[in-house]
């Protein structure tokens, strides 16, 4: 497969979104400088200063080392795979896909790069950026989930339609979206590749933020496999349930302190305060291992 061949089997696919049936063999197209008469669909050389980044870009982080390596390659070989842009006005362009190549070309000192010029509205921009990145750049699971949520919120797609656009079934789409319901600390670990999608799926099935945070900490501390996590989840789910009495609402200051303590101990700390200012701090634990972890944090 050459660098310019399109991938297929992506649901509607990138080709359908681009609507470029007149360009079935892009490697055979000529590369021309951009003029007012340039036809949409051709490959042209575009000034880097005339290109702005895609506001719908789902990727938020770029590996600087990898960018430098790509820039070194571009210095020697040139940019082999064109970026894709849409024309806005006055020969200005907006990236649809290829921001990593765009950034690396800047680092390599290029002034122009080859580009496919397409016509796309904002919905197509978001869809194409998402599909291109999922297929080529391996977005982390949280970036995928956030992009899926944007397509639902901003484009108005249902989960079935979204699945068709990106070539995934509804269950897969649902699993990604459910990641956004996990506590921020767990989402950060998924984003930073500290835990896998398999770990995350096991955590999603756990009832209660305190239990989710406990298991999450166990994964990090003990480098638990997905199978071990699933076993731990089953054990916790079958543990006897205890009634938690309702408590009187605490003030904003106490609520912040309660949240800060919860973050420190990776569990839902409860602060009880009476009218006369007396009270107690309750730090729940779900197992002997969890208790030992908390005691270590207390330097006990």
Overview of this structure, please?
- There is one protein chain.
- The chain is α/β, with parallel strands linked by helices.
- The chain has three domains: 13-135, Conserved hypothetical protein from pyrococcus furiosus pfu- 392566-001, ParB domain (Alpha-Beta Complex), CATH 3.90.1530.30; 143-150 and 164-237, Arc Repressor Mutant, subunit A, CATH 1.10.10.2830; 252-297, no CATH class.
- It has helices at 13-18, 64-77, 99-107, 122-136, 141-155, 159-166, 170-178, 184-191, 197-204, 209-222, 226-237, 252-265, 288-297; strands at 31-33, 43-47, 51-52, 83-87, 93-97, 112-118, 270-273, 279-282.
- It has a six-stranded mixed β-sheet with strand order 1-2-6-4-5-3, with helices on both faces.
- Strand 4 (83-87) and strand 5 form a beta hairpin.
Name a few traits of the molecule.
Conserved hypothetical protein from pyrococcus furiosus pfu- 392566-001, ParB domain, elongated, alpha/beta, single chain, 6-stranded mixed β-sheet, disordered N terminus, Arc Repressor Mutant, subunit A, 300 residues, 3 domains, two-stranded antiparallel sheet, 12% strand, 8 strands
Helix-strand pattern, N to C? Answer: HEEEHEEHEHHHHHHHHHEEH
Q: Tell me the helix content.
A: 40-55%
- Specify the overall morphology: elongated
Uncertain runs? 1-33, 35-39, 244-248
> What would you call the structural class?
alpha/beta
Supply the number of structural domains: 3
Strand order of the largest sheet: 1-2-6-4-5-3
Distance N terminus to C terminus?
62 Å
Average of the residue pLDDT scores: 76
Largest sheet: 6 strands, mixed
The total count of strands amounts to: 8
| CATH topology call of the largest domain | Conserved hypothetical protein from pyrococcus furiosus pfu- 392566-001, ParB domain
Percent range for β-strand residues: 5-15%
Number of helices: 13
GO molecular function, one term: DNA binding
Family: Belongs to the ParB family.
GO cellular component, one term: chromosome
Biased composition (Polar residues): 24-39
């Amino acid at each position: 497969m050459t660098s310019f061949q399109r991938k297929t089997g992506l649901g509607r696919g990138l080709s359908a979104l681009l609507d470029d049936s007149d360009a079935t063999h892009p490697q055979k197209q000529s590369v021309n400088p951009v003029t007012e008469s340039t036809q949409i669909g051709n490959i042209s050389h575009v000034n880097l200063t005339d290109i702005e980044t895609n506001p719908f870009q789902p990727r938020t982080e770029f590996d600087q080392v990898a960018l430098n390596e790509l820039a070194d390659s571009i210095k020697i070989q040139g940019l082999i795979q064109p970026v894709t842009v849409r024309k806005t006005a006055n020969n200005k362009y907006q990236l649809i896909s290829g921001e990593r190549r765009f950034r690396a070309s800047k680092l390599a000192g290029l002034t122009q790069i080859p580009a496919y010029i397409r016509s796309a509205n904002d919905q197509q921009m978001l869809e194409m950026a998402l599909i291109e990145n999922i297929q080529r750049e391996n977005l982390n699971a949280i970036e995928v989930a956030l992009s899926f949520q944007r397509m639902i919120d901003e484009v108005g797609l249902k989960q079935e339609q979204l699945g068709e656009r990106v070539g995934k079934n509804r269950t897969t789409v649902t699993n990604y979206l459910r990641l956004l319901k996990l506590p921020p600390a767990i989402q950060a670990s998924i984003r930073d590749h500290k835990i896998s999608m398999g770990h995350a799926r096991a955590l999603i099935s756990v009832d209660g933020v305190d239990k989710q945070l406990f298991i999450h900490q166990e994964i990090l501390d003990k480098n638990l496999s997905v199978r071990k996590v699933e076993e731990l989840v089953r054990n916790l789910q079958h543990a006897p349930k205890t009634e938690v009495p309702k408590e009187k609402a605490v003030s904003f200051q106490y609520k912040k302190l309660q949240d800060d303590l919860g973050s420190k101990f990776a569990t839902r700390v409860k602060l009880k305060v009476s009218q006369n200012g007396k009270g107690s701090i309750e730090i729940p634990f779900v197992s002997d291992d969890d208790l030992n972890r908390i005691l270590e944090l207390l330097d006990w």
